[in-house]
Structure formats: structure tokens, C-alpha cells
Amino acid sequence: MGSSFGTLFRISSFGESHGGGVGVIVEGCPPRLELDIGAIQAELDRRRPGQSRITTPRKEADRIEILSGLEGTMTLGTPIGMLVRNKDQRPGDYKTVEQAFRPSHADATYQAKYGIQASSGGGRASARETIARVAGGAIARQVLHRCHGTEVVAWVQRVQDIEASVDPLSVSQAAVESTIVRCPDGATARRMIARIEQVGREGDSIGGVLGCVVRGCPAGLGMPVFDKLEADLAKAVMSLPATKGFEIGSGFAGTYLRGSEHNDAFLPSEDGSIHTATNNSGGIQGGISNGEPIILRVGFKPTATIRKQQPTVTASGQATTLAAKGRHDPCVLPRAVPMVEAMVTLVLMDHLLRQQGQCSLW
Q1: For residue 242, what pLDDT band results from cuts at 50, 70 and 90?
Q2: Which residues belong to the annotated binding site for FMN?
Q3: What is the dihedral of CA 216, 278, 164, 235, to 10 degrees?
Q4: CA gyration radius for the chain?
Q5: Which numeric CATH code is attached to 2-356?
Q6: Angle 96-105-305 (CA atoms, 0-180°, nearest 5)?
Q7: What is the spatial distance between Cα 247 and Cα 253, in angstroms, rounded to a whole number?
Q8: Which region holds residue 286: left if phi is over 0, alpha if psi is between -120 and 50, else beta?
Q9: Which of 144, 215, 303, 353 is 20 to 30 A away from residue 137, measured at CA?
């Protein structure tokens, strides 16, 4: 319940942050696809902890193991099982969690729902679960790129009140990866890094906003009414840990405009393809992609685990205080970039298969 995502291209994740490992079952991958295992590992390397001085110091290589679904590197069309084993577990860092709920974590809500919770780390609520999403998304990315040349690029747009100037139409993954904060605006990136380091030294945390663009998305993806493409994208990215907001196209800024200012006028085309003069719709109209770049933004809260002393209560409701000991990111945004890309890619892959199934009879 609640650990699977997708309809035709479907992932199911398993594992806890301080258990034996985290894995994923990918169903619906087309057969006879030559899979680049190195590309899957590269995505996990972008997500893994301990990759820079502004991320958690937990040391995990996050080496992927392919358990099923391949003949060599060729997909069989059967479920693909992948596993990453945990190596640097420190459950002792979380002994106090057994007695006290960590503020703004899932401890209290998991206890209320199940009557039991993982005593080490966040369990299923931990960002370590996103290994499964990134691994599954890496397969979807390969299919989308080979079929349509689709690119999905995310970046850190804002850290607290420090905002970058980024052109979604031209931003590249190489530019994003050129800084440890994953902001392609070099000058702004340096300010972001300094702020994150400062906050980390103070034992605190900060949040911000990620931007994401999809280029080369074919028109026609998305279903009417309840399975609109932007609705599925919103669900996908908002299922990530620490997310608190979603915008697409003009987003909330569009609420300040009149219809005459916001409408995307159509341009004439000799080949019959659809193009618009502006893109306030963010590449989606009526819940269906129109072929223009899909542009979205995701808001992330400050990391909940901080070293500052905080008031809380025990499971029995007694007042106490808590200062976390675990290894955590002072800002989740740099490592969230591949996570957002993965969830967006999974949605697009699922809708591509649904569209192909709908049109294959004609």
C-alpha cells in the first residue's frame, strides 16, 4: 500500500534507511532494450550522500545490483529488480527517537497510523528511499531519450532568499553539475554554498526551490480529467520527502495577470505542428502536453533534522527536548535535483506507454 507508482510503467520500492538495503521493482519496461547500466549508476551517484562538503557526511557508494529482468544488458520485458545495499548504517544515532518524536518528522504520524515505527532513522519516510525512484527513473530516461530525444533537466533555482537567473530553454545538465549546489548560475551558486555552510555550522537548515524543464516531450501525453499530465507530475514530485509546493508554467504568478495577458497565442505552422508564442501554460493545456517545453518548480522545506535543541514530547505525551545526532543535509536541494528529474521522467514514460496503447489500433 502506497509503495508503488505508475500505471503501465510502474515502480515498487522497498527498504528502510538503516535496514539491509533499498530496492525497486520496475514493471512495464519494453523488451529488447539495450540498457546502459553505467547510466543508472551515474544517476545514483548524483543522488548519493557524502558527495560534497554541503551534503550529509554519510558514506554510501550506492552500488546498484541488477537482480532480474535482463539478459546481459538486454531487457526481457519482465520485472527488473534492482537493489542497493546499505553499508554505513548507524542505528545508534537514533536511540533517542524511541523515546521522543523528532519535530516535523514522520515519527509521530507513523506511530499514529501503524502503532509502530522504524527506530533507526526515518525508515520508509527517509530520503534514502528515493534510491528506488532514481534507479527506476534512470531506465525511463533512456527509453524517452531514444524514442523522442526527450531531456529532463532540474536545477537549484533558489536557496532561502538567494535566487538564480536561469534560462529553462537552454540550461544543460553539464552546467547544473558544474557546481556542488547544482545551480548553473556560477556567481549565485557561490552565494548559495556560503549560506548553506553557514547554516550548517549553526546546526540549522534551510530550504528553497528547484526548477525543472522537459525539452522534446511529444504532444499528446496526458489523460482527460483525473489523470491530467500536470496532476500526475504534481503527485509525483510532491511524493518526494520535504516537498511543500508545486507550480507549473506561470504558476501562482499567473494569478496576477488578465486572460489577455496570460493566454498562449498559437503560431502558424507549415507542417501542421502546434507552437505557441508564449508558454504560460508550461507545456500542458487541458491536461495534455502540447509539444512546448514543460516547465515546473518544486518547493522544499528546511531539513527537519537539526542539531539545535528543540522541545518535543515522548510517545506517552511527556514533555522533553531533543537535539538530533544523525548525519543530515543542511539543505536538501542539491541532492533533490536527480530525484525530481526521476519522478518527472517516470510520469512521462508512463504516459508515453498509455498513449502508445491508445493509438496502436489506428
Answers
A1: very high
A2: 124-126, 286, 301-305, 327
A3: -60
A4: 21
A5: 3.60.150.10
A6: 70
A7: 9
A8: left
A9: 303
User: How far is C-alpha 236 from the chain's CA centre?
Assistant: 8
pLDDT score, position 328: 78
Q: How far apart are CA 166 and CA 156, in angstroms?
A: 10
CB contact set of 20 (below 8 Å; sequence gap of 6+): 85, 86
Secondary structure letter of residue 314 according to DSSP: B
Residue 94 has pLDDT above 70, yes or no: no
Query: Is the pTM above the cut of 0.85?
Result: yes
Helices (H), 115-227: 130-148, 173-176, 186-201
Report phi then psi at 312, rounded to 5: -160, -170
Instruction: Pull the grid cell for residue 279.
Output: 508558454
Share of the chain above pLDDT 90, in %: 72
Strand order in the sheet with 21-27: 4-5, 10-15, 21-27, 80-85, 64-68
How many whole angstroms separate alpha carbon 27 and alpha carbon 275? Answer: 34
Say how far residue 237 (Cα) sits from the centre of its chain: 6
Task: Please state, in angstroms and rounded to a whole number, the distance separating the CA atoms of residues 200 and 331.
Answer: 8
CA distances to 32, 81, 349 from 25, in Å:
18, 5, 15
Q: Which backbone phi and psi does 241 adopt, to 5 degrees? A: -60, 145
The CB density around residue 204, as the number of other CB atoms within 10 Å, is 14
Residue with cell 514530547: 313
Which uninterrupted H or E stretch holds 163?
strand 162-163
| Binding-site residue set for NADP(+) | 47, 53
| 130: three-class secondary structure by DSSP | helix
Q: What letter would DSSP give residue 91?
A: G
Query: pLDDT tens, 294-307?
Result: 999 999 999 988 88
State the DSSP code for 283: T
Tally of residues, the chain: 362
d(CA 284, CA 228): 9
Residues 6+ apart with CB under 8 A from 277: 264, 265, 266, 267
Annotated binding site: 47, 53, 124-126, 286, 301-305, 327
